[in-house]
């Protein structure tokens, strides 16, 4: 049995502009101790998925349907107080912005100790000792002295470490980290991710890592789910995604990664932006941005299938949602993954998978609701279609 099993989850927000389907029929699972990445641009539904797992969706949002089973128990069936016990104790969350996660009027040590007292029923002295040990574990120097400092006396990187210490304070089975290092510079990011990974292994904690950064996924994760417009469009192991991506959106994300040693002047990006979720394009929601789109893509929503067999996959770990795998397209997906060997990769000596963009002219479809060119990448290097690409958050 997986630690977390999410099945057919649909979450909607009832706004004045209309109904936003932020998560649409989403299924995935995370095994005990596994590091599971969730990647996609802003608006893909990554954070809403995490909040749904924690049952933290607020008005005007509503979990419309689906089950979220944690350790065999359906969180959707639990009372509010039962879910509160699970939160922080069995499932903990690290939010993107450490500053808002910390209370400015309590010392950092007290904030960690409070969670320990509440969830683990420790006495004052034992909770203090455990909090100091956790501060030490996340790399806060002189943790005993810093226990009594307030959040504003810590740098951004140290505040984020405190948030990680808080999340780990009750030894959770699942840690949901929502863009945990977005606000930090790259050297601090590397240190924090490294520490997070080490601590997760030490505490045998599974991680659901939400990010827009495929580099971070490659560093840390075992498996990955790529999301677009509230749906999963690809699921794979990290190796499969890097060496054999199956969905054109994943291909676009892969092509947009900057690499040391690249001689091109401009970064490749995905044209256009995530669609307005009040009015998702018909058929495959990625079709206005997809260079392989055909007429059928505007009519039929692609199911998640095994890319080898074209058959439905349920909770399977290898899947892609593209009509190319269901036999509905006239043409094949025309891209190549090129893996550079060590001899061609002088900077770090690591094999470097990269995706070659299609040489063919982009296919235009009749229904192009946002008026975008369907050229996946800016092939003539003039930047005209470079409005999209990965964005923060
Ligand atoms: S080829 Fe069609 S179905 Fe596949 S991702 Fe592109 S638009 Fe979607």
TrEMBL record:
Topological relation to the membrane, as annotated: Peripheral membrane protein
Question: InterPro entries in the record, alphabetically?
Answer: AAA+_ATPase, ABC_Ni/Peptide_Import, ABC_transporter-like_ATP-bd, ABC_transporter-like_CS, Oligopep_ABC_C, P-loop_NTPase
Query: What region holds the ABC transporter domain?
Result: 4-254
Q: Name one GO cellular component term.
A: plasma membrane
| Entry superkingdom | Archaea
Gene3D superfamilies linked to this entry = P-loop containing nucleotide triphosphate hydrolases
Keyword field contains Cell membrane: yes
Q: What CDD domains does its record include? A: ABC_NikE_OppD_transporters (cd03257)
Q: Which UniProt keywords apply?
A: ATP-binding, Cell membrane, Membrane, Nucleotide-binding, Transport
Alphabetical GO biological process terms? peptide transport
Looking at the Swiss-Prot or TrEMBL record, what is one Pfam family this protein matches?
ABC_tran
Biased amino acid composition, Basic and acidic residues: 340-367
Q: Which GO terms describe its molecular function?
A: ATP binding; ATP hydrolysis activity
- Compartments where found: Cell membrane
Q: Where is the composition biased (Acidic residues)?
A: 375-387
Region of interest: Disordered: 340-393
The protein in question is named ABC transporter ATP-binding protein
């Amino acid at each position: 049995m997986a630690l977390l099993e999410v099945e057919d989850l649909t979450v909607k927000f009832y706004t004045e502009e209309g109904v936003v389907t932020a998560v649409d029929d989403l299924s995935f699972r995370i095994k005990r101790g596994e590091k599971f990445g969730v990647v996609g641009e802003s608006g893909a539904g990554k954070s809403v998925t995490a909040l749904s797992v924690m049952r933290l969706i607020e008005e005007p949002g509503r979990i419309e349907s689906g089950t979220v089973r944690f350790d065999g128990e359906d969180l959707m069936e639990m009372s509010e107080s039962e879910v509160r016990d699970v939160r922080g104790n069995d499932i903990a969350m690290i939010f993107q912005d450490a500053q808002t996660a910390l209370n400015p009027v309590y010392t950092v040590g007290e904030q960690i100790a409070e969670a320990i007292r509440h969830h683990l029923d420790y006495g004052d002295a034992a909770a203090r000792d455990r909090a100091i040990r956790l501060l030490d574990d996340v790399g806060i120097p002189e943790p005993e002295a810093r226990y009594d400092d307030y959040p504003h006396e810590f740098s951004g990187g140290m505040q984020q470490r405190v948030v990680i210490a808080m999340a780990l304070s009750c030894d959770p089975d699942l840690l949901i980290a929502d863009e945990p290092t977005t606000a930090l510079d790259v050297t601090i990011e590397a240190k924090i991710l490294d520490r997070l990974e080490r601590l997760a292994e030490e505490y045998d904690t599974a991680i659901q890592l939400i990010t827009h950064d495929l580099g971070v996924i490659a560093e840390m994760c075992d498996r990955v789910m790529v999301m677009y417009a509230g749906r999963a469009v690809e699921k794979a192991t990290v190796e499969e995604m890097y060496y054999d991506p199956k969905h054109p959106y994943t291909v676009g994300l892969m092509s947009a990664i900057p690499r040391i040693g690249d001689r091109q002047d401009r970064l490749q990006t995905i044209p256009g932006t995530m669609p307005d979720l009040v009015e998702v394009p018909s058929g495959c929601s990625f079709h206005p941005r997809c260079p392989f789109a055909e007429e059928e893509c505007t009519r039929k929503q692609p199911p998640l299938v095994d890319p080898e067999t074209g058959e439905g996959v349920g909770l399977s770990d290898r899947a892609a949602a593209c009509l190319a795998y269901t036999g509905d397209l006239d043409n094949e997906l025309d891209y190549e993954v090129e893996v550079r060997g060590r001899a061609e990769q002088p900077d770090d000596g690591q094999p470097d998978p990269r995706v070659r963009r299609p040489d063919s002219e982009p296919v235009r479809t009749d229904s192009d609701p946002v008026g975008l060119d369907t050229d996946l990448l800016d092939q003539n290097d003039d930047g005209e279609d470079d409005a999209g690409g990965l964005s923060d958050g």
